[in-house]
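Z., the sequence and structure:
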Amino acid sequence: MAEPALAVRRRSRISSARKRSHPPARLEAVCSPLKRPSAGCEGAPAEPPCNNDSEEDMFGDYDSFHESDSLLAQVLDAEHQHPQEKGMDMKAAGEFAHGNLQSEMDQNKQGNLHATEDSVHEVDEHYGFQMDENDAGDTNEDLSDSVFDELPSSQLLYLEKMGELSSRSQRSAGTEKMDKWKNSSLDKIQSPSPCPDSGHKNRSAKSSKGSKSDSCKSVSLKDHLKNAMTGNAKVQTPKVSKTRQLKEAILSEEISVARETIGSSSFDIGPFYGLPSKVKHLLRQFRGIETLYEWQHDCLTLKSLQQRKNLIYSLPTSGGKTLVAEILILQELLCRQKDVLMILPYVAIVQEKVWGLSSFGIELGFLVEEYAGSKGRFPPIKRRIKKSLYIATIEKGHALVNSLIETDRIDDLGLVVVDELHMIGEGSRGAMLEMTLAKILYASKNTHIVGMSATLNNVGDLQKFLQAEYYTKNFRPVELKEYIKIRDTIYEVDSKAENGFTFSRLLNFKYSGSLEKADPDHIVALVTEVIPKYSCLIFCPTKKNCENVATMVCKYLNKEFRAHREKEKQDLIKNLEDIGNGSICPVLRQTIPFGVAYHHSGLTNDERKSIEEAYSRGVLCLLACTATLAAGVNLPARRVILRAPYVASEFLKKNQYKQMIGRAGRAGIDSAGESILIVQEKDKHLVRDLITSPLENCYSNLLPESTKGMQYLLLSLVGLKIAVTQEEVYSFMCHTLLGVQQQLLLKEKSLSGIIRDELENLIEKGLLKGKIMEQDQNSKSTLTITLLGKATYKGSIDLSYCNLLYKELRKGLEGLVLESSLHLLFLATPYDMVPNCSPDWMIYLRQFNQLSSAEQKVADMVGVPESFIAKKASGQAIRKNVDSAIVNRLYLSFVLYALLKETNIWSVSEKFNMSRGYVQNLLTSAASFASCVLHFCEELEEFWVYKALLTELTKRLTYCVKTELIPLMEVAGVLEARAKQLYNAGYKTVAHLANANPETLVKTIEHLSRRQAKQMVSSAKMLLTEKAEALQEEVEELLKVPTDIP
C-alpha cells in the first residue's frame, strides 16, 4: 500500500495547489452549504457560509451523517425511487437533490467548462479515456469518474482500503470494473511523466453524459459517502511544503497543456514551444539562455515539424543548432512520451552531451543513457514509466537500432537526431550512418528524423533519401570576418572582389633578426594582438607542429604574460603532474606559465579534459591544436589562426576550413570573431579556389567501404529479416543514399548487379545461405543467415576479420591460458590497430623475458616463437616465415597487459617508447573491440566459456584503474584523476556522489568549478536512477503473471 499512498498524496498536493491559485472572487461566488468540489471550478472548495469563520466544526454546515441527514437521505430516496438509474453519476444526483443550488453553481463554472469543451474529446482520446456511450460497462466508469475525481486524497486512501476488503468477498462485475479503473487511475498518478490532470479535469465534464449502470448493487451510494467522509475525517493530511505543492501543480498543468498542444493539429504552441515553462527556467539556470534567436523560433514553429515531417536544417557553426534539437528532444520525451536517439560523431562529444543533459533529466523525469565505446545495453531496457534519451556514437547508434528492430521495439523510438549530418559522406563511419537511417526509414513510419550540419551542399540528395524538408539560414550570433595573410600583408576575404579578397592592413610588429628567422609566418605578431585579454586558437597540420608552435610562441612572449592568473596556471601544472603520477610533458611545463598549451590526440583523456577546462575558464589563452578540435568539443576563440592550408599532407577541404573558422567568435562574450589563414605564395591560387568554391558534396560510401558498408548492410538486412530475397534487397537498396545517387555513382555496373555480386561473396564466406539468380531471372528464393553471419553483424565485426576471429577463438578453446589475462587480451586486441604498429624488437624481447613460463606459452600458441623475437632483436636473418600481423598484434597485447597491471598510461608509454596518446587510443579501441567480441560469442553456443571472461575483461579495459575507482568512473565526465580526488575525499560510491552537496564538493575537491560540481552530482543521480529503474523493471518482469498459463 505504500506506493499508492504516495501517489494519492501527490495528487492531493496538486489539487490543493490549484485551490489556492483561484482568486477570492471565484471562491465567494460558490459559497454554499454544499461542500463538494466542482469539476468546473477545478476542485475549488465550496466554503461554509461566508460569515462563518469558525474552524471548530469539521464539516461546516453539513447535516450530521449520524442522524437523518437531508443530503444523504434525499440521495437514498432517489436510489430507491429510481433503481434502474443507479448508475447516474454524482453530479446528476446532486442536481436531483439541489436543483436550484446546483444551477447557480453551474453558472459560475460554465466559463471553465466552455473553455475546455473543444479539447476534451481530443485529449481523452489521446490518453485512452475516450468512452463509447453504447458500451454496456461504461456506466461503471462514469460513476467512478464522478466518485473518485471529486474526492480528496484521504478519501481515496480510505476507499482503496475498502476496495481491498470488498475484493475478498463476493463482488459484482461492476464493482470489479470500478476497482480496476481506480488502480489504473492511481498508476497514472504514480507515473513521473507529468500531466495527470490533463484528463482529470475533462473527464468530470464528460461523466455527466454517462449511460445507465447496474454497478454497486451490494453497496448503496449512501454507504459509500458515509464511509468516505468518515475515512476523510480520520486520515491525517500529510504535511508538505506549499511552495512545492504549487510548483508541482504548475509543472503538471503546463505539461498537460503541452501534450494537448503537441497532440492537436493546431499550431498554437504551449507555454514554451509545447513544453512547460520550467524548461525555460532550466535553460536559463544551466545554460544562461534567456531568449531564443529569431531563426530558432522560426524553425521550431515550422509547419513541417508540427506535421512530424523529417527535417534537415543547416546553419554556420556557433549558430545555435543544438538548442533547437534539444527542445525537439524534450518535446518527444515529455509530451509524446517516446524514447529518443541522438547520434553524435565522437566519444568525447557523447560524454559531454550526457554530462550536460543529465541535469535536465533529473529535473524533468527522463533517463539519459550513454552508448559509446564499450557502454550500452543491447537491446536497451524497456522502461515502463520513464522514457530514455540514448546518446550514441555512430557505431553504437547503428547497433542500438538493429537491436530495436530485432525485438520489434523500433516504434518506441519517437525521434532520431543526427548531428554533423555531412559525415554521411565520410568513409566507413558515413556508410554506417547511412545504414542506420535507411533501416529506421524502412522499419518505422512513426519515427521522426532530424539532421543538422554546418556544412551541407547537395541537400537535394539528402532530402530525397530522408524524405525530409529543408531549413537554412546564414546566421551567426557573432559576426565572422575572414582574412588571409601573405608575407606581412593581411587581406580580407571578399566574394565580390575579382581575386576573392581585398587589402586590409600591414602587420605592425617589430621583428628582430632571430625572431624573423624563428617565426617567418609572424605567428607571434598575430597572437599578441589578442592574448591574454582574449582567447586564440592556432590550427596546425600535424601534432608535432602543434608542440613546436606552442614552444616557439612562448620563447618570444614578454615576461608579463607569466603574471596573468599565475596561481591558477601553477594549479593546472600540479593537476597535470597528479594525472601523470608525478610526470608531465616538458613542453606543457614550459608553455603553461605563459597561458599556452597544445591540444591533439597525443594527450591522454585526463590531460585533454584538464586543458579544455583551463581554456574555457580563461586560465589558458592560446591553444595550438590539430583539426580534430574543430569537429570535437566546443572551444570557441576571439581569433582563429590557420597555420597552413593543410591537414597533414593533404590540402584543406572547404568543409574542414568552415569547421575551423567557425570556432571564431564567442556568443555573449565577443562582439566579433576573426579568422586568419596563413598562405605561402605558392599556394595562393589554391587558396583562392578554396575560398570561392562551394562546399563538398556528400556521396554514399556503401561501395568504397565494401566490407564495412555494402556487404555488412546486406548481411544485417537478411539477419533482421528486413529483406530475405534478392527482390526485397533491391527494393530496400533503392531507398538508400546509394540508391538515390546510383546514376551518378554506378558507371560500370547496375545496382542489381552489385547486389548479386556482394550476396555471392557473403555466401562464399559462409555468412549467408541461399541461391543467387542471374539478373534476367525473377528470384524468389529465400536467403537465410548462418550462425556465424548472425554473430558477425550482432557483434559489429568487420567482415574482413570475422573468419579470422572465429578461427582464433576456436584455437583458443583448445588451450586457453587463464593463469593471466594475456591470452584473452590477445583475442581482444583490435585488428585495425595492427597495421600502424612497428615493434621495437629490444623492448619486445625484454617484455617477453619478463613473462612467466605459462604466459610465454601464449606466444607459442598464437604463432610467435621466442626464437623469432630473439633473432629480430639481434638483427639475424629469419628463415621461417611468421605472420607479421600476428607478431604485431601480440606486441600490442603486451602493451595492454602492462596497462592492466600498472594502470598508468605514462609509465607504460615510456616503457614501450610510444606516445601516451597512442597508448590511450589503443586502450579505448581494445575496450570497444572486447565488447564486440563478447556480443559475437553470445551468438555462438560453442564459445559459451568466453562470455563471463570477456564481460570482466571489457570492464577492466574500459576503466583501466584500480577496482575501487570503477564505480566513480561510471559517472559521465568523471575520469581517473577526478575519481582519485573524489575517493580520497570520502566520496567512494555513486550514491555518495549523487547525494553530495555541490558547494561542499567545490571546497573539498581542487580545481573543481561550481558548474562542474553541479553537473557531476546530476550525472551521478542520473546513473543511480537508471540503475534503480533497471532493477525495478527486472522485478516487474519477474512478478508479471504469464498470459499463457495452462
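The chain has 49 helices and 19 strands. Residues 1-69, 84-155, 165-219, 264-269 have pLDDT under 50 and may be disordered.

Let me know what you think.
H.
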